């Protein structure tokens, strides 16, 4: 069955100039990507990013649940960095193409640093209390 497929065609880069043109002509929000990212990173537990993007319903739920005890914060960061989380009118955020890569790298570094710090603090407190 595999011999029936042209694997070069199947795995070829399918992002065409038409796709790029279509992306560039999407309506852009007056909300800024960098602001939404910073709010999501530092005040995500309180739903500040959702309030900023004009989504008060989900922002209140996020606030009451403390960001789903942190899980919703990580999910929103991923959605924001992938370009999926947009403003209320479903417009892409201003500055996304310019800052998304740098913000993704910074997010990975900060999450890794938080995990290492958590391990160090957790293991050192277990050693000193035992």
Quick structural overview:
Helices cover 66% and strands 6% of the residues.
Describe the structure using short key phrases.
130 residues, 66% helix, extended, mainly alpha, 8 helices
Report the end-to-end length measured between terminal Cα atoms.
62 Å
Q: Can you tell me the residue ranges where pLDDT is under 50 for at least 5 consecutive residues?
A: none
Give me the strand/helix succession. Answer: HHEHHHHHEH
The DSSP helix count reads: 8
The largest sheet is: 2 strands, parallel
Strand order in the largest sheet: 1-2
Overall geometry comes to: extended
Q: What is the tally of beta strands?
A: 2
Q: Helical amount among residues, as a percent range?
A: 55-70%
Strand content: 5-15%
Structural class: mainly alpha
């Amino acid at each position: 069955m595999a011999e029936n497929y042209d694997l070069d065609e199947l795995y070829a880069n399918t992002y065409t100039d038409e796709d790029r043109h279509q992306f560039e002509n999407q309506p852009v929000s007056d909300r800024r990507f960098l602001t939404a990212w910073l709010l999501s990173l530092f005040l995500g537990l309180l739903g500040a990013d959702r309030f900023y993007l004009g989504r008060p319903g989900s922002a209140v739920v996020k606030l009451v649940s403390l960001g789903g005890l942190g899980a919703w914060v990580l999910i929103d960061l991923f959605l924001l960095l992938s370009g999926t989380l947009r403003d209320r009118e479903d417009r892409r955020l201003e500055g996304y193409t310019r800052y998304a890569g740098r913000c993704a790298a910074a997010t990975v570094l900060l999450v890794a640093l938080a995990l290492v710090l958590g391990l160090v603090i957790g293991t050192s407190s277990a050693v000193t209390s035992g």
